[in-house]
């Protein structure tokens, strides 16, 4: 019997000694995906192709030619292009769009013999924090199906949490990997801006977007990151900086490591269950030789405003390409060109996407540009500087992942500002371009997962992976 709850490490051993096959495991995941349809995690499932590919990988294993990720079964957020596959961004606008090339991350995973099982549901164009803004219906949290899984990479988080895939890819523009990882009780990493190629990722806010993995453990995150990280000549913002060996850096030792606790991230009003679960882990880190230092990031109170000005500005520009002519949905109600643009966009985009386009257009418009966009750019620089300053003194930071655990489906949909405020602990990493990881730290009285976040220096994923792996191993 295939045990889908067994860690990837153990499964890989069985795979290599011939007691289990990729084909068996793929079949088991496919059956489980059908059983858990109500979670609404997938938009496309590659039933036949996945089985075909499983056989190929099994043959490679027998011949001793399989890549480093043989047996890793991956679900991909539906904002990442896969040649010949529907790439909808969970929008009516792209409901029938088929990608014409593979994203670099897809090519790299394929080359390492990972297997793709399907494309996952998400907030439309990655805009949202709950998984409710999809044109194809809300995604449910497997821990409690009346609650949201977080967003925007909702389906990718749920695919892993509900054991429908071994790992998955999400994207994080302001928290969309880390926050759903926290809400679903799994691990999720946002790499440094430029660490992973964005070639083939449908853009939301180009100076913030990064692709990153979800998995059950920091170790599996490291395995996937190892393959997808690194320079890509197709993405001019990808960095030509060597990729270290992440697994090797995970030495289960935090002695002498200086970990900063930003006081702005632990306000008096912080939820008491979240505070005590985090404090327990922080005490354990201390007991094992880490030095915990209180630090300050003085511009923290401006992060939400700065993010929602800059991200919407970039979104309004990026989403201008969906005009009914070049991509996707075209209204049938139009009588002239102007109407074709306006009706196609009005009918094709959902509420939240339209709100963002309007906000973004407003902050960029002449007369408001200086007051909003330009000012926000200046504040972004100050926020980046806060991090540069503290990283002179500490190796990484520890923070909560969100102000609450997973909230009820429908609870925040009518109040966009409340929804935006949920991102208070995650957007700073994207503003500063630094890496962040969320792993599970415990649960609240209702059994809802509580995540813990570690933020690192630019291109120092190794340190936060090492701390996250350590935290997973101590109780
Ligand atoms: N919740 C944030 C937003 O709606 C972040 C989304 C993301 O990271 N893609 O913009």
What topology does this entry show?
Elements: H1 8-16, H2 22-35, E1 42-45, H3 47-63, E2 73-77, H4 104-111, E3 115-120, H5 154-161, E4 167-172, H6 178-184, E5 187-190, E6 210-215, H7 218-228, H8 246-249, E7 258-262, H9 272-287, E8 291-295, H10 303-318, H11 337-348, H12 351-364, H13 370-390, E9 396-400, H14 416-421, H15 427-432, E10 436-443, E11 449-456, H16 461-473
Parallel strand pairs: 2-3, 2-4, 7-8, 7-9
Antiparallel strand pairs: 1-3, 4-6, 5-6, 5-10, 9-11, 10-11
Bound molecules: glutamine (GLN).
SSE order, one letter for each helix or strand: HHEHEHEHEHEEHHEHEHHHHEHHEEH
Main beta-sheet strand count, sense and barrel state: 11 strands, mixed
Identify the bound ligands.
Answer: glutamine
The low-confidence parts are none
Globular, elongated, flat, extended or rod-shaped: what is the shape? globular
Give the number of helices: 16
- What is the CATH homologous superfamily assignment? Amidase signature (AS) domain
Number of domains: 1
Report, as a whole number of angstroms, the end-to-end distance. 30 Å
CATH topology: Amidase signature (AS) enzymes
CATH class: Alpha Beta
- What Rg, in angstroms, do the CA atoms define? 21 Å
Helix content: 25-40%
Mean pLDDT: 97
Total number of β-strand segments? 11
Strand percentage, roughly? 5-15%
Structural class: alpha/beta
At CATH level 2, the architecture is: Alpha-Beta Complex
Adjacency order of strands in the biggest sheet: 1-3-2-4-6-5-10-11-9-7-8
């Amino acid at each position: 019997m295939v045990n889908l709850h067994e860690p990837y490490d153990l499964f890989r051993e069985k795979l290599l000694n011939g007691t289990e096959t990729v084909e068996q495991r793929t079949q088991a995941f496919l059956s489980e995906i059908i059983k858990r349809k109500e979670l609404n995690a997938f938009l496309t499932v590659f039933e036949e192709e996945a089985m075909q590919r499983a056989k190929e990988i099994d043959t490679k294993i027998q011949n001793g030619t399989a890549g480093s990720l043989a047996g890793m079964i991956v679900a991909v957020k539906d904002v990442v292009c896969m040649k010949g596959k529907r790439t909808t961004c969970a929008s009516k606008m792209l409901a029938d769009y088929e990608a014409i090339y593979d994203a670099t991350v897809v090519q790299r995973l394929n080359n390492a013999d990972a297997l793709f099982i399907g494309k996952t549901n998400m907030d439309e164009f990655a805009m949202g924090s709950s998984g409710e803004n999809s044109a194809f219906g809300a995604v449910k949290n497997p821990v409690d199906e009346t609650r949201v899984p977080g967003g925007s990479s909702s389906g990718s988080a749920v695919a892993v949490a509900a054991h429908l895939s071994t790992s998955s890819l999400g994207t994080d523009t302001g928290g969309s990997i880390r926050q759903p990882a926290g809400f679903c009780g799994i691990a999720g990493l946002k790499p440094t801006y430029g660490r992973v190629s964005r070639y083939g990722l449908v853009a939301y806010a180009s100076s913030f977007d990064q692709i990153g993995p979800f998995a059950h453990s920091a170790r599996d995150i490291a395995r996937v990151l190892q393959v997808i990280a690194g320079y890509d000549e197709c993405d001019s913002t990808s960095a030509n900086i060597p990729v270290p060996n992440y697994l090797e850096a995970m030495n289960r030792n935090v002695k002498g490591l200086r970990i900063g606790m930003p006081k702005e991230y632990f306000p008096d009003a912080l939820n008491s269950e979240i505070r005590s679960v985090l404090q327990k882990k922080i005490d354990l880190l201390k007991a094992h030789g880490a030095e915990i230092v209180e630090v300050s990031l003085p511009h923290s109170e401006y992060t939400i405003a700065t993010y929602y000005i800059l991200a919407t500005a970039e979104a309004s520009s990026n989403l201008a390409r969906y005009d009914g002519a070049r991509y996707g949905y075209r209204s049938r109600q139009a009588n002239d060109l102007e109407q074709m643009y306006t009706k196609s966009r009005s009918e094709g985009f959902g509420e939240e996407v339209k709100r963002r386009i309007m906000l973004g257009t407003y902050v960029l418009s002449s007369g408001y540009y200086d007051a909003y966009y330009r000012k926000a750019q200046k504040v972004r620089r100050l926020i980046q500087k806060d991090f540069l300053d503290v990283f002179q003194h500490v190796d990484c930071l520890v923070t909560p992942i969100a102000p609450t655990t997973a909230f009820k489906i429908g609870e925040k949909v009518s109040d966009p500002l409340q929804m935006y405020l949920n991102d208070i602990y995650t957007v700073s990493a994207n503003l500063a371009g630094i890496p962040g990881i969320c792993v599970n730290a415990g649960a609240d009285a209702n059994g809802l997962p509580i995540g813990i976040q570690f933020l690192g220096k630019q291109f120092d994923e190794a340190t936060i992976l090492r701390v996250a792996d350590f935290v997973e191993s101590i109780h």
